[in-house]
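Predict structure. Input: FAD/FMN-containing dehydrogenase, 466 residues.
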Amino acid sequence: MNDTTVINPTDVKLLASRTTGPVATPADEQYEALTSSWNLAYPQSPAVVVGAADADDVQAAVRFAAAADLPVAVLSTGHGTWGSTEQAVLINVRALDSVTIDPLARTATVGAGVEWQDVVSAAGVAGLAPVSGSALNVGVVGYTLGGGLSPVLGRAYGWAADHVLAFDIVTPDGQLRTVDPQSEPDLFWAVRGGKSAFGVVTSLTFSLMPVPRFFGGGLYVDAVHAEALLAEFRHLTALDDDRLTVSFAFLRMPAAPFVPEPLRGRVCAHLRFSFLGNAVEGQELVAPARALAPALIDTVCERPYTEYAAVHDDPVAPMPAYERTRLLAEFPEEAATALIEAAGAGVDTPVLVVEIRQLGGALSREPRFPSAVSHRDVAFSFWVGTVGAPGRSGAASPPLESLIDALKAWQHTGSALNFLGTTDPAATAEAYSPQTLDRLRQLKREFDPGNLFRVNHNLVPTTQER
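Output follows.
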């Protein structure tokens, strides 16, 4: 380790005396467990890590970092870990794992370390559902503050950030603030979409939806049938029905025991389908896709919302993942052809997942309380991902970028913050409209002029006076 990252042991002891949770440096046994991340591609090596037991510990860690002039990084599950925490104070918030459901108010209040599976299970008892993402073990707070795109509820209810009612946050001055639209309107706007740039959110309260069940799952066919399946995908996305959400992916499946036998060693075309209407209507909507080709696996059926992860069936085990994303203004037939030529059957590429997600519907509408979530006018998101050796982002980037460029003719100027796969400042800037980016940087100057929270999607404070 570079000696500039070594903290005086006396200072470490002082920090530990002010926290309930553990404090560790690279020499300590707990360090590896406290710095472990779901995404193994970017090993974490902070100068010191604090396993926060409560909001008081978060305050102590932030104050310590400010006094030592060290940046702050935050770790929950680590799905969105795309960079290095070297020379930083890392705050691990996994122990902040409380979940409270208010079935009458239809709200959930969760700690910063809570994963979606815990909220979905607790809310499901009351017949309610959060605007959760595609995977069970993604952290609620990071997902929500980056916008939060649900493959089941998004088009009917909007972004997860649209349903935030209040949150507690430790700001760079070490203060714990309770933020809602009335108490701190600027922070309430900025943090919903600005992610961790303004502090550490320790608790989040958001609305739940009255959705106990839905019709959905995944249809897997051999990728040689992709042209027909993509044509049906485009037909379904053209229907004017916010209850319906579909996405399409090319999947290069390894010949490994953890892969279902019908998919092993294949290039698959995967139609993800979710519908909030009744099962009879759902069956009618999915029937044409089912008739196009023999299904390798078909999981589309009526199911409780607690089984929402069956739509994408994302992997849950930690892995070294690299990814890139762009937004698409449209996805015409020519774009579908370009996608097949770049990633379809017979193409030699190390990129394992290439997906198009349908947006629109409520995702395109402004919520009651505006936020920093941008590019609501976009029709589709385009994402590519692969796995590789840890610390080898340079080797993974060229094939990812090449596939992204394959649909360049239909790209929007923006991108989606939660799927960026990089902390490059230019890429971060593209996640916002120019007006939103300017306001975020102005507010960053107000709340974090020293840019203490910069080990993330860095929003550099503006140098101009407001």
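The mean pLDDT is 95.
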